[in-house]
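User: I'm putting together a teaching handout on how sequence relates to shape, and I'd like one worked example. Could you take Olfactory receptor from Neotoma lepida, show the sequence you're using, and then write out its predicted structure as tokens right after it?

Assistant: Happy to. First the sequence, then the structure tokens directly below it.
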Amino acid sequence: MAISLNISLHTPMYFFLANLALLDIVCTSTVLPKLLEGLVGKGSHISYKGCMTQLFFLTWFLGAELLLLTAMAYDRYVAICRPLHYSMLMSWPVCVLLAGSVWLISAVSTSVHTGLMAQLNFCGPNQIRHFLCEIPSLLLLSCSPTTLNNIMIVIADVYFGVVNFLLTMISYSFIIASILRIRSAEGKRRAFSTCSAHLVVVTLYYSTVIYTYVQPGSGSSLENGKLVALLYTAVSPTLNPLIYSLRNKDVKVALR
């Protein structure tokens, strides 16, 4: 709301930040209502359709956030390393194309994963040892072969996790190198302040998501991953607006 109502924040950086805020809202809305329902004692059951629905939207939003963080890193790279070409390289058509690609690519990916999951047979007690319907926890319940599912998970891990993480790190390597070439200490501080908040968010989000999905079929990783899942489904979305607002003078002015 602050970004949309304040004309001074109508820039590519805050356009992507508004998309991040939207992703955080829908991600927490996918998981936390059912979790809270279980915590207040109204039952910890979820229907098969409800589980598949939660799986679809959770996977969609998690993948979209990874892609969005990469787009935001590219935006900061252009702003700091190629400032004279910023208005051309980050024009509004380019920003809309990047944001649209983020949502569309992740939607295609989650459609594939959910479709493959829907073809599996589930037998036995069907008790999920988790507080949400997630691919690693559901694969452990299947009595059908899950080879294709695991292959697609590895492909998604490589693209969403490894490739996007490397692209983000490459962007920041150029950013850091550019900042170090600035002679004045004040100039370095101002340049780094524009990307430090994003770097904190990237570190927190990637470390938790990669930990969960790097071993999709491992029971031990599932047990250890419950707290980690809470971090990226609840804690991280809560911290994101605080990190960006408390460390950003423009946002604080807009909020006032």
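A couple of points you could highlight for students: The chain has one domain: 7-255. Residues 7-255 form a domain with the Rhopdopsin 7-helix transmembrane proteins fold (CATH 1.20.1070.10).
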